[in-house]
Automatic annotation (TrEMBL):
It is a multi-pass membrane protein. Residues 428-445 have a biased composition (Pro residues). This is MDR family MFS transporter. It is found in: Cell membrane. Pfam families: MFS_1. It comes from Streptomyces salinarius. Residues 1-11 have a biased composition (Polar residues). Residues 29-430 form the Major facilitator superfamily (MFS) profile domain. The chain crosses the membrane at residues 38-60, 66-84, 105-122, 128-148, 169-190, 196-215, 243-264, 276-297, 309-327, 339-362, 374-398, 404-422. Residues 1-21, 425-451 are annotated as: Disordered. InterPro entries: MFS, MFS_dom, MFS_trans_sf, MFS_Transporters. CDD domains: MFS_MdtH_MDR_like. SUPFAM superfamilies: MFS general substrate transporter. PROSITE patterns: MFS (PS50850).
Amino acid sequence: MTSAHPSSPSTERSEPVSRRRRTARLPTFTTFSSLSPLLRLLVLTQLAFNIGFFAVLPFLSEHLGQSVGMAGWLVGFVLGLRTFSQQGLFVVGGALADRYGIRPVVLAGCVLRIAGFAWLGFAERTWAVVGAVLLIGFAAALFSPAVESEVARQAVVWEEAGGGDRTRVLALFTVAGQAGAFVGPLLGALLLAVDFRTACLAGAGVFVLVLAGHARLLPQRIPGRVQVRVKGGARLVLRNRRFLALCCAYGAYLLAYNQLYLALPAEVERAAGSQAPLAWLFALSSLLVVTAQLSVTRWAGERLAPRRSMVAGLVLIAVGFAVVGLARPAGWTGTGGLMPAAGFVVLLTLGQMLVAPVARAWVPDLAEEGRLGLYTGALSSVSGIVVLAGSSATGLLLDAGLPAAVPWLVLAAVPLVAVGVLPRGSRPVPPDSSTPTAPSPPVPPSSSSSS
């Protein structure tokens, strides 16, 4: 397989350990300022995206049920449509970014998101709500894989130019997204004091600012990026067993992470008699990522190769499920009964810090030259299918009337199985005939200037 950069023949990235340790010891607060202008723009983009998104979407279900008057099943159906139109179509957005470049795809996605939020603010009938939600989801399917793939590509350039391990860039990207996910609901809650329409229009306003900033600052052409035809991309992904193995392992992690919204609420309800403590547990998870992600990435970069980092993260997640499973037979309630749930959240979040940046940083090693957008989108789409199937099975498991510990111990086995699925060493294969046989030379960070 043709690597996205010729100097990384192995997914374990065989640069000397001394070099990796030396770069990992750079102070974390200098990471952002040391990035190229393009990378700084893309990291801030992720922050703005999530502020605008989470100012609206956490409050959508209540709005649909109470203000619009939808039945519960219809609310769930609409939310499912949004997820499908977003995650399921990431692969489309990634392929379009490979074909046309990230600028037109990102700008088009911002325009659709603005229109979707504005429409949602005024939608009062079911068909209008469905249309607005589909537009909101498809907008993300355009701009998110475009931005994420370019961040991964620029992280490789940054690494090859001696800036440090690429996972530090992906970790910073994760922190920016989590910070947006933390600030967005706070902004939305303040705006809901007026009404839901105001929150929607404010969310649209955030994307108006993003659109204006990117129209001015995002380069027309990014040096070193090649454009390839869309045709044949799906065949390449389906033949790439190592990449599909990574998708399955990443899907198992996402399935575990989604238990914050499925298994954890039921456990909190049992222990506390209400779901009020959930907000504190979610805040705990967000604050851990914002405050500790860069330090955890630096620590892992000094000691662990990428595959071992993912293994460690998956094992921590499994232990988190086991903590609740082993405590469940005791039937503890009150503050003491919430301690296993809090331990689960902490371990799950620590596992996330080890798994998520490394998985994204691994994709360039598995993608053919010029296809990074497709592969970045496919990582979300394929793992999303895993989560969809796994969530249905988890729901059945939780409702099956089994002994209290069994569902949690079964869920603990999922990340352990994913450890066995993770790909190992790589070997090159002939490049696709539709892509260049020799990759373009790396672009120094200083040359990726914004225009």
